[in-house]
Structures are given as structure tokens and as C-alpha cells.
Amino acid sequence: MDTVGRAMIDAKVMVKNYWTNGDALLQSMRSNEVHVAMAWDGGGWKLHKENPDIDFVAPKSGALGWIDTFALPAKAKNVDAAYKWINFILRPENAAVFTNAEKYGTASAGAVKLLDADVRKNFERSFPQKDIDNIKWYPPVPAKLESIEGKILDKVKAAK
After folding, report:
1. Taking Cα atoms as reference points, which of 122, 88, 91 lies closest to residue 104?
2. Rounded distance, CA 132 to CA 124, Å?
3. How far apart are alpha carbons 91 and 93 in whole angstroms?
4. 157 in helix, strand or coil?
5. How far apart are CA 154 and CA 30, in angstroms?
6. Sequential pLDDT tens for the chain (160 residues)
């Protein structure tokens, strides 16, 4: 991890800022402070709606992917109801309603074809099948590693 930290410090001359939330990222792009950013697809799509010259594209090396999940507590009292809810929300027609409202992608099979045209076009433009097939799935991060990453990032931010 120290090697990664040193490489990040060496690359700092090419970094305009380290954004800490979606609004800061969007403002960096709107103001032309930055021209390339590692970002969520939804932010890129919002910027594209404002300015068609800006868009989200998956890197050739593969987009970083993760899927929000449902979890049942070990001591859940009504497991059947929980599974009914999960099955309900993951039905394509329901996933499409949620996706249309949130403007982020969906992992529910069949939902993309049910999306509003503008949301579907964003997804299809940014994630052709070859890019979906090339997603690099984010692994679980152990708590100790997350702490180490945080310390290294603090060093990177503090470095001149």
C-alpha cells in the first residue's frame, strides 16, 4: 500500500482536486477546472444533459462496478415478507420505476427496455454490451484495509 501511496503522490501534479461528494465533482466539470474525472455514471449523465460535450464513458480497462444488495438480519422475524419485498422491487417493471426516478443504472434483468427513453439512452450510450462484459467488480474491503487506505489518502492529500 505504501507503493501505491507514493505513486499517487508522484501523480499529484496531474490532479486538479480530490472531490469529496457528487456536487463538488459536478462543479469541477462545469467550471472546466477538470476535463476528465473518475465518477459515477449518473453524474456524467446529469452533466451530459446540461452540456452534450460532456458524458460518462466506461474506461477501456473496465468500469468499476458494484451492486447494492438486500440483506436480511439473522434474527429477522418475517423472512417471507422480506423475500416478497425483494422479489417485488426486483421485478423489471418495478426496478424501472426506481431507476427512472434515481437516474442510475439497474441490475434487474429486463428493466432497461422499460426505462424512460432518456434514461435508457444514457445507459445504452455509456454501457454497450462489451463494456458490461468488462466490468471489474469491486471486492469486499476488510475494515483494516479501509483504515489503511484512509491513512494513505490522508498522506497523499497532505503531500506538496
Report:
1. 122
2. 10
3. 6
4. helix
5. 26
6. 889 999 999 999 999 888 889 899 999 999 999 999 988 899 999 999 999 999 999 999 999 988 878 899 999 999 999 999 999 999 999 999 999 999 888 888 899 999 999 999 999 999 999 999 999 998 888 889 989 999 999 999 999 8
